[in-house]
Amino acid sequence: MTGSDIREKYLAFMTAKGHEVVPSAALVPDNDPTTLFTGSGMQPMVPYLLGESHPKGVRIADSQKCFRAEDISEVGDNSHTTFFEMLGNWSLGDYFKEEQIPWIASFYLDEVGLDPEKFYVTAFIGDKVAGLPKDEEAANLWADVLGKRGVTNDAAELGSADDASKRGMKAGERIFYYDAKENWWSRAGVPANMPVGEIGGGDSEMFYDFGTDHDTKFGEHCHPACDCGRFMEIGNSVFMEYIKTETGFEKLPARNVDFGGGLERITAVANGNSDVFKVDLLWSVVEQIERLSGKKYQDHLEAFRVITDHIRGAVFMIGDGVMPGNTEQGYFVRRLLRRAVRFADVLEIPAGEFKNLAESVIVKYKDHYTNLATKQAEITDAIEKEETQFRKTLENGLKQFNKISLQVHVQTKEVDGKKVIDQESATTKKAISAQNAFDLFTTFGFPIELTEEIATEKELVVDRGGFEKLMEEHKEKSRAGAEQKFKGGLADHSDIAVQYHTATHLLLAALREILGTHVHQAGSNITGERLRFDFTHGEKVEGETLERIEAWVNNAIATKGKVTIETMAKDKAENDKTIEGSFWERYPDEVKVYTIGGEDNIISRELCGGPHVKQLSDITGTFKIKKESSSSAGVRRIKAVLDVEQ
After folding, report:
1. 253, 216 contact by CB (below 8 A)
2. Distance (Å, whole) CA 383 – CA 380
3. Of the four listed, 82, 116, 212, 428, which is most buried by Cβ atoms within 10 Å?
4. This model's pTM is above 0.85
């Protein structure tokens, strides 16, 4: 089965169950500073899971394109990709476990045709300290599903992944209870970390058994959540049914279901092969690489996988309007392309052919993601320019390497037949030092393998151990910074942050009213403490004018007008001159338009994807501009707060 077959089959299946199918949201979230990319199917749905009414109703399904930048270094094995599609369905206070589990089981086992004898599931074991019960309901539903298909379905309590690796699995066991680290979802993690007012619930994952031998470096025994590669997770249903209160956990009056399943993984399992790169959606790129390089995939797995994944991710990113650059999202497009170019050189793909790999991606996806076809020339051109620029950078890096090598005299000794630095007779200053290798990587994009390759040609030695240490320190710093950037947009939908989202709309309306209609949004960053708004304007905004803008926003808030939402086709919205919007290319074919005010007094009508208050009376405090400054050429920046002390 092809990936397109399964995508269409899933959406048709959910439509038959009363779901409204919505288009994928853009890879770059709108008005959400907590994340750079849409990293899960749930992410665009968070406002609705937290109580906002969805314009399409209470049963929603989609196939959401996702990108996880933190997985770049993991690409090279048989299952990790940075870009992927997540099939999803949601119940927003409608059906619950008794419908979801039989439905999703029917899709996997009947529609896709997976072998039930290789199908394993998990459930939440409960939390005695938090007073949360074991999810026997989910386990019993799964037992019924499997029993009807003639599969033995004994349940086992495994607890933590560590406990599971010590216990292992016994014959006949198909349903496994894990603790909150494996089978609980909330924005704050496990129940003990959840603040009062936070919602969450146990989840139920599905795994497919490829029957490969267990690798004991991942634990003494295998189990479904083991990382050895025998089992592949292919879907997860989250049952959000609890809210944390001052006295403990209580059941929510309106419970939600959130399901997500990776399209590539489901397709791989359907075809009985654990290598996701052999799925047609990726294999078309692999085949083109084989033609261009004259080499076989099986002989160069890492290089083929990196190029295939990275070119696909870059194509989708550029298709959503993100161009290669040095900051934010653009940095990751640049990183993908440059890493892919390096591996293309390893495979000896002719330099002028690299950009043409984009075509094999677009051909596979253009029917579902039509923007890729319309932007094909733009995508190819951006890839070609980035490759050209990177090759110049590599050339400069080689010059820097040569400067370093002229200063190096290395004394080495033989250890197990390999040359290594003789620490007794040579200092790191006499070698290609760890710092030199690290600088070549961070400044010139030289992978350590390239540095070592050139060093070997010059009969030099690289302090690889020291380099790895510096890289680990660098990764730790990156992780610390990424904790907020890659939470999946779930970090701040607090009341005050939502108020700031709406206040930003009022600010833009005020700017366009007072400065002129040339003003458009150029970027925003919203937290629970303040808003930062960039807008197109060529000169400094004087203090007196800022006071007028403040007054305009506060007068608008005082009207206590309603905030309404409307879903419409993007081309219709774009042609409606009463609707203000920026970054149109980042939005799907169907968009949300927020209108503030009544029919006789429309204060703002704007394209948006962020959360908002229901009426302006929900905004507390006085709007106050703290600073106006330059952001970049032709772009100004305002920082403002909602001052509750006035």
Report:
1. no
2. 5
3. 82
4. no
